[in-house]
Amino acid sequence: TDQWIGVKDCQVVTSDPELEGLLSKLPDPAHTCVEFITREPIEMVLIQGDPRRPKDKTTARVLCTAEGLYVFFHCTTSSPAGAAWSRKTRDTDVWFDNNVEIFLSPDAAGGRDYYQITVNPGGTVFDARARDKAWNGELAVATSIRRGSWTVEVGIPFKSLGLSGRPDNKVWRMNLTRLNTDTGEDTSWCVLGDYRSHTPSRFGYLWVDAGAKVNVPPQDMQPWRRLFNGRDLAGWKLIHGKARVGKGEIRTGYQGQARLLWTEPVPHDDFVVTADVQVTGQLRFMFSPDPANRKVGYFAAFINGINESNVALLRDWEYWNPPLGGHLTIPQVGPCPMQEGRWYRCEVHFRPDRVRLILDGRVLMESANLFPKARYFGLDMLGEGRLKNVRLRRLLSGS
User: Running DSSP on this structure, what letter comes out for residue 247?
Assistant: First the structure.
């Protein structure tokens, strides 16, 4: 199952582990283990086999004691030169070396208060709080480089995070990442969708397991369905026009024709579609009960790219903006501040009673929907456009 946000419980152990960089003295049970998956967008052509599977495997373990949190990384490397690194001074640009990173946020909602710890194979550390490198944690760090792998062990005292003790059964947000400079692979525990690591709302959930049941927001437990596999248009029907796939993207913009793609039928109810987009022409996220029946019509969230820069809701070919009481008051056509050559994260939340269009976390349009439930999702592109990371998942009540 392709999940956007992971969930892990952090096991409590009674004794502090001895950090020597070799992963040989982990206390039991240090079994909270996560294998990284490639954070997208990766240059898919550089990946062997499944485009989501990195060439060099990374695993991580997390545990805690009464005094602190411990994270252990094992990084395989296929480079004959091993794990290269050059930064030797704390709080320099360690992220340009081979490195692993720990992102921690005590805010379960994924707010902007979070900690970043970056370590290269030589044990050099960059640490910051919400990008402020004036924060220096009282960290214990040990590393080791071997033929074919390197390892990192990091101890983080709770007092360095402003806590007076162990946060039993408290939900945190966390992400773990690795940059492999030898292969160009940027990998992560939680799929972020792009290279922006500093996105707490997409971190995974972590809690100290002290025996009580912890409730994680159910929406983030819903699996994502990958609508585009990054290799071909399997699962889509190209109704007219031309489209091609390259480097993990759907690309259009040929011969001045519109491209219209529909998914095979899927049993949606309420759902959200998300995609990374780069568009200079027009792009419609379309929903229809039956795209083959023109009498049924469609409903669409419409983006006009940098030439006109606006967004709108369409029902068939007409602007559609019935009011949504108590929510945003917006005109039929709203501004869409897109820049040429830049990638944007676009989300469309679709329900029987409303539709919401979000661009890079900003709600651009929200209005009543009042359209029959759709079983097909489509993309209609006129002019040059590029899309990737197209996903769909159910929406639960209140999300």
Answer: T
pLDDT in tens, 99-144: 999 999 887 666 678 999 999 999 999 999 988 999 999 999 999 9
Q: Yes or no: say if 378 and 261 are a contact pair by the CB < 8 Å rule.
A: yes
| Residue range 344-369, pLDDT digits in tens | 888 887 776 667 777 777 777 666 65
Residues 1-14 have pLDDT tens digits of 233 445 565 656 65
Cis amide bond preceding 41, omega within 30: yes
Alpha-carbon span 135 to 114, nearest angstrom: 11
Tell me which amino acid residue 72 is.
F
Closest residue by Cα to residue 236 from 113, 366, 392: 392
Instruction: Tally Cβ neighbours within 10 Å of residue 86.
Output: 12
Query: Is residue 161 helix, strand or coil?
Result: helix
Task: In whole angstroms, give the CA distance from residue 313 to residue 318.
Answer: 8
pLDDT of the residue at 94: 95
Q: Per residue in 11-20, pLDDT tens? A: 566 556 666 6
- pLDDT class for 70, splitting at 50, 70, 90? confident
Query: Right CATH number for 225-394 from 2.60.120.560, 3.40.50.720, 1.10.10.2910, 2.60.120.10?
Result: 2.60.120.560
- DSSP letter string, 307-336: TT-EEEEEETTEE-----TTS----SEEE-
* Architecture category of domain 7-212 in CATH: Sandwich (2.60)
Residues of each domain in the chain carrying CATH 2.60.40.1190? 7-212
Token pair for 165: 């003790």
- Token pair of 186 as six digits: 């940027």
Name the pairing type of β-strands 7-12 and 204-209. parallel
Q: How large is the greatest C-alpha to C-alpha distance in the chain, in angstroms?
A: 70
Contact of 62 with 69, CB cutoff 8 Å:
yes
Asked whether 395 and 223 are in contact (CB, 8 A), the reply is: no
Calculate the average pLDDT of the chain. Answer: 72
C-alpha distances (whole Å) from 238 to each of 83, 253, 258, 287, 345 are 45, 14, 11, 15, 23
* Placement of tokens 């949190």 in the chain: 69
Contact (Cβ atoms closer than 8 angstroms) between residue 125 and residue 117: yes
Structure tokens that stand for 277 in this block: 């987009």
String of DSSP letters for 57-68: -EEEEEEE-SSE
DSSP class of residue 96 equals G
**Which residues are CB-contacts of 207 (< 8 A; sequence separation ≥ 6)?**
9, 10, 169, 170, 171, 172, 214
